[in-house]
Amino acid sequence: IFYHPFSFPQRSVPAIMTTPSDLPPEILDMITKCLPVTDHIAFSRTCRRMRKFVPPCEMEWVKLEWHPKQNMILLYTNIEEKFKSEPFMIYHEQAYMTERKMCDSGKVDCWRFFKCPPKISIWLFYIFWFFIEYLWIWIFSDFLPLSCFHFSPFYLFSVCWLAFVFRIALIYWPYVFAQSNPGYRFFKAAKIKHLVLSEHFRFHIGNLEALSILLTGCNIDKITFIVDNVTDANLCKVHEFFALIRVKKVAFNIPKGKSRSELTLTMRDEFSVGLALAGIEEITFSSCKFYDSDRERLDRGFGRLWSAFGRILTCDSKLNTNEIENGVEDKSAYLLDLLVKLFNAGIKSVIVNINALTDRTTIVKHDLDTLLRKTAALKKNMSLVIHCQDEIMDGTDAGSRPLPKGSYRSDDDEELGRTVEINYYSDSVTIVYLSTQPKAEL
Amino acid sequence: MVLITLVSSDEQNFPVERELLKQSGTIETLIVNMNLDDEDTDAAAMPIPLPNVKGDVLEKVIQWMEHHKGDPVKEGDNEDNNAEIVVPQWDDDFFKPAMYGSKHLELTVAASYLDIKNLLTLSCKAISNTFKGKTGPQIREEWGVPNEFTPEEEEAIRKENEWSE
User: Fold this and answer.
1) Which helix (H) or strand (E) holds A33?
2) Residue A392, helix vs strand vs coil
3) Domain coordinates of chain A in residue numbers?
4) What is the pLDDT of residue A21?
5) How far is CA B110 from CA B58, B66, B87, in A?
6) 3.40.50.12160, 1.20.1300.10, 3.30.710.10, 3.40.50.10490: which CATH number matches B3-130?
7) Largest CB tally within 10 Å, which of A95, A214, A353, B76?
8) All structural domains of chain B with their residue ranges
9) pTM for the full model?
10) Pick from A419, A333, A335: which is nearest to A376 by CA?
11) Which residues, in sequence order, are CB contacts of A86 under 8 Å at separation 6+?
C-alpha cells in the first residue's frame, strides 16, 4: 500500500467490537445524551464499564403542582413521568399527604402552592352546621317545644360549641394525623431554588406546621409569600419556619390595601432580629395588587365569627390594634427606620420596591442623606437597592428639581474608612458601601 | 468528475466522488491541505489510506454518503445530539441489518473517525433507540453483554436507583 505523506492518527479501539461498552467514551457520551433518565440508568446497569462511565442519576423535580380540587399533587420530573401522590386531605387552606412518599434527593425550581378555594370550606361549614342544628332539634324536639328551643341560651351555647369543635377538627386534624406519622416527610434533601407560595396560601400555624413537615431537610434558596395579618400574628413561628427550611432569601409581597396594617409587623424589633437569627441574608419588599375579596366578605358577614375563632386558634399573640392604627404614621421615617433596623440586625442585602412600603412613589435626596448617615454608624457591609417609580428630587419644595441620573459618590466618611456609591438610573437606586481600607472592619 | 481513492485497512480500494467526501471532515481537511483535488498535480492520484476502517465498513459509509449527497454538512460540535432527533426511515432501514452487531458499532466508530457528523449522530441515535424502555438485563441479552455483576452488586445498584422504578 502506498502511504500518504499525511498519516492518520491511529485510534485505540478494540480490534473486534461486540458490545456498546467497547465504544470509545466520546461516542458513549453521545449515545447516553440521547437517552431519557430511566434508560440512562438501565444502560448503566449492563456492565461494570458502563456503570463507571454513566454516573448515578439524580432525580430532578422539574415542577410541582398542587391541585386541591382534584385532591392531587403532581410532580414533574426529569424522567418524563408524573408521580401522582394521592389522596391529599384538604381542609381550609391545608393539605396533607396520607401516604409515605420519600425520595433521596431532588431539585425543584419552583414550587407553587394553591389553597383550596375558601368557598368549598365555607359551604362545608354551612352544611355541617345545619346538619348538626337539625340533628339537635330532631333529638330534643320530643323534650322541648321547638320555639323555646330556638331562643334558648342552651341552644346558642350548643351551636357555638359545636362550631368551635368543628373548627378545631378542621384545622388540627391533618396536623394530628401528621404527628401520628413522625417519620413522614416529602423530601429528604431536596434543593428548591424558589418556593413561591401563592397569594391564597396564608401563613397561619396550621399551614406552617404542614409546610415545616413537608419541607424538613430541604434546602431552599428563596421563598416568596404574601404578608398579611395572620403572618403578623405568627411572626415567631415564621422565623422558626425560615430557620428550619434554611432559606437565605425572603421576598415579602405586601398587598395593597386600605389599612396597610401588615406593615406594622415590619417595625417590630423581633421582626428584623428574628430574620437575621433565622439566617436570612437578603430581603425583598414588593407590593401586589391582590386583595383577598373572599376574606373581606368573610370578615364582613357570617365569616366574622369564623375569623374570630380562627384568630383565637391560630394566633400566638393577639393583634395590637393601637399599633396597627398608629404604627405607620410617618411614612418617611418609617422606611428609613425599617432599613436601619434591618441592617442593624445583620441583614446584608435589602431590595425595596418603594411603593410596597410607603404610599410615596419618589425619594427625596434629603431622605437618602439621612439614611446614609444612620447606616454609616452601623459599621456593617450592606447593599440596598431601592426601586422607585419617579425621579429622585433634591428637595420637597415646589422649586425642587430631579437629581441627574447616573452614578455619584456621597461624601467620604474618612473616619469609617469607606465611601458610599449611589447608582441612580431610570428606576432604581443602588446604594453600596465600598471599603476604602481593605482590612477595615465593616 | 474527480475521483479520489480511499484505501481501507484490509487494503481494499474505493474510488469515491470528490463531492461525496465533503461530508467527511477528516478527509476534507486532508484534501484541502494536501491539494488533492488539484487535477494538475500528482497528488490527485494519491490514494488516501484509512487504516482504522475496514473494507466492509467503508463500503457502508460510502453507501450512506451517496444517499446523503448534497445534504447540508453540520459545522462545529454535535450540541444538538439529543433525544429530539428522529432517525429517518431510510437511515433506520440502513442501520437495521447491522443492528445489535459489531458492524453497527464499527460504522459508528468509523463515522467518528472520519468526522461525518450526520452519520455519527444518526448512528448514535439508532443505538440509543435500542436501549429505550428496556432494563439492564434486557439490554445485556440483546447486545450479548456478559453479566459481570455479583448478586450483591446487582442489589446495590437496584437500591441506588430505586426511585426510578
Assistant:
1) helix A25-33
2) coil
3) 1-57, 361-442
4) 81
5) 8, 16, 18
6) 3.30.710.10
7) A95
8) 3-130
9) 0.47
10) A419
11) A71, A72, A73, A99
Highest mean pLDDT among A73-87, A136-150, A381-395: A381-395
Report d(CA A216, CA A208) in Å as an integer.
12
- Cell numbers at A367, concatenated: 431622605
Answer for the pair A111, A195: CB distance below 8 angstroms, yes or no. yes
Helix, strand, coil percentages in chain A from 3-state DSSP, rounded to 5: 40, 20, 35
A116-121: average pLDDT: 43
Cell triple for residue B53?
476502517
- Interhelix angle B136-143/A37-44, nearest 10 degrees: 60
- Find out whether A42 and B136 touch, Cβ atoms under 8 Å: yes
Q: By the 8 A CB rule, do B3 and B45 touch?
A: no
Report whether A78 contacts A59 (CB < 8 A): yes
Cβ atoms of residues B154 and A46 within 8 Å: no
The closest alpha carbon to B25, from B113, B153, B103, belongs to B113
How confident is the model at residue B165, as a pLDDT?
57
CA dihedral A145, A148, A150, A153 (to 10 degrees): -130
CB contact B135 to A (< 8 Å):
yes
Burial degree of A54 (CB within 10 A; 0-12, 13-18, 19+): buried
B127 inside 8 A of chain A by CB: yes
Torsions phi, psi for A350 (to 5 deg): -130, 130
Q: How far is B58 from chain A (nearest CA, A)?
A: 15
Q: What percent of chain B has pLDDT over 70?
A: 84
Residue B125 CA to residue A32 CA, distance in Å, equals 9
Residues ≥6 apart with Cβ < 8 Å to A147: none
B140 touches chain A (CB under 8 A): yes
Chain centroid to Cα B17, Å, comes to: 19
Distance CA B67, CA B125 (A): 18
Q: Which residues of A touch B161 (CB under 8 A)?
A: 41, 45, 56-57
Mean per-residue pLDDT of chain B: 82
Q: What is the mean pLDDT of residues A76-81?
A: 56
**Residue A440 region by backbone torsions, left for phi larger than 0, else alpha for psi between -120 and 50, else beta:** beta
Lowest average pLDDT, out of A23-37, A311-325, B47-61, B79-93, goes to A311-325
Residue with cell 330556638: A150
How far apart CA A324 and CA A296 sit, in angstroms, is: 18
Tell me whether residues A6 and B33 touch, CB distance under 8 A: yes
Average pLDDT score, chain A: 62
Q: Is A246 helix (H, G, I), strand (E, B) or coil?
A: coil
Q: What cell was used for B148?
A: 459481570
Question: What ipTM describes this predicted complex?
Answer: 0.88
Q: How many Å lie between the alpha carbon of A170 and the closest alpha carbon of chain B?
A: 34
Please confirm whether the linkage preceding A68 is cis (ω < 30° from 0). no
Residues of chain B with Cβ-Cβ distance to A48 below 8 Å are: 148-149
Most confident of A143-152, A274-283, B38-47: A274-283
Q: Quote the crossing angle between the two packed helices A37-44 and A25-33, to the nearest 10°.
A: 140
Measured between CA atoms, the residue of chain A closest to residue B52 is A10
53-72 of B, contacting A, C-beta below 8 A: none
- Mean pLDDT confidence for A219-232: 76
pLDDT tens digits for range B128-160? 888 888 888 888 888 888 888 888 888 887 777
